[in-house]
Design brief:
Layout lengths: L2 E7 L4 E6 L2 E6 L13 E6 L7 E6 L4 E5 H7 L3 H23 L3 H8 L3 H7 L9 H10 L14
Helix pairs in contact: 2-5
Length: 155
């Protein structure tokens, strides 16, 4: 996802990134190196070398850092981003369990009632068009139990 515009909010001590999904802040304290009152942001720009998916900043001391749009999405717990990360995690687990299960891919395809192309889409960690439902079915065929838990976020 590309950054459309960026600004500084020194009152809140955060970078503000605008994307097609919305506007997200990313606090200075999470940056590396972090801007401070004595080493403030001297300049920043949406970086074309990062495909406009991040901004680079330079502090008064000359040190540079980068804030990627994914960092801001993760910090703000943006729902579509969190879904994509969840799908990625399920896919990695499916790949790991497929290798250790000893099941042939043809058997997995038969038990899922799908095509080889669909199985390969489900096993592609970079494909986010798949559904959580199908990933849960795949993990079930691979002999896995998936548990969800809801708990307060740690600080």
């Amino acid at each position: 996802m590309r950054i459309q515009s960026a600004s500084l909010d020194n009152r809140r001590r955060a970078f503000v990134l605008s994307t097609e999904r919305g506007t997200f802040s990313f606090p200075y304290v999470k940056c590396d190196p972090p801007p401070t009152p004595t080493d403030h942001v001297a300049e920043f720009w949406i970086d074309d070398e990062l495909g406009r998916e991040g901004l680079t900043y330079r502090l008064a001391s000359g040190r540079e850092g980068v804030v990627l749009v994914d960092m801001a999405l993760d910090y703000n717990r943006e729902p579509a981003f969190m879904r994509d990360m969840f799908l990625h995690q399920l896919t990695v687990e499916a790949l790991r369990h497929l290798e250790s299960s000893g099941l042939a891919k043809r058997e997995v395809i038969r038990r899922l009632g799908t095509s080889p192309a669909q199985l390969y889409r489900l096993l592609d960690p970079a494909d986010y068009s798949k559904s959580v439902d199908r990933m849960l079915e795949l993990l079930s065929v691979l002999g896995c139990e998936v548990e969800f838990s809801v708990r307060p976020r740690s600080a």
